[in-house]
Amino acid sequence: MIVFTGLVQELGTITSIQPVEGGGAKLVIDAALASQLSAGDSVAVNGVCLTAVDPGEQSFSADAIGETLARSSLGDLAAGSKVNLELPLAIGDRLGGHVVQGHVDAVGEVVDATEQGNALVVRIAAPESLSKYLVAKGSVAIDGVSLTVASLDQSTFEVWLIPETRERTGLGQAVAGTKVNLEADVLAKYVERLLEK
Hints:
- By secondary structure, this protein is mostly beta strands.
- The protein folds into two domains: about 10-85, Elongation Factor Tu (Ef-tu), domain 3 (Beta Barrel); about 105-195, Elongation Factor Tu (Ef-tu), domain 3, CATH 2.40.30.
- Helices cover about 15% and strands about 40% of the residues.
- The chain contains four helices and 13 strands.
- A seven-stranded antiparallel sheet has the order 10-9-13-7-8-12-11. The chain has a six-stranded antiparallel barrel with strand order 1-2-5-4-3-6.
- The longest helix has 11 residues, at about 185-195.
- It is globular, with a radius of gyration of 16 Å.
């Protein structure tokens, strides 16, 4: 099983998105971590687990099928877009965030982002299908970033971004209307499945 920790390693740049006949697209991403990739390696791009193709010293490509584009915000990207990048967890690495699979559960939308001291408080509207897995002080991955749910109501939840997160990830640029990839804590989904049985 490939897992991530939700700790972004680099902010990459989309250099091109080439539509593929019949749906899907090929993304070309400029990033220094490309030099650590081999063809076929997994890499999280804004929280979506993709497979590296043609990695070089400064860039790599990844194919996103129609299903991936439909279930994530990757289809909204354009040349010049910044993306959060993370390599998978290796045996022996620290698990500094939480277990993130790179399987997007839903696309949310930023309702507002307000300054609170040196933090940025981001409120996100989440579909009911995902909201049921959220708990105050629990974990959620937003565009692949492991964050703590600060508060929530029936349809929205808030996270607080510290200066480090604001600087190292694309979330620091969040404004109302921004679409974000959401992944609930997989442990909550397993508990639900067990209780259903």
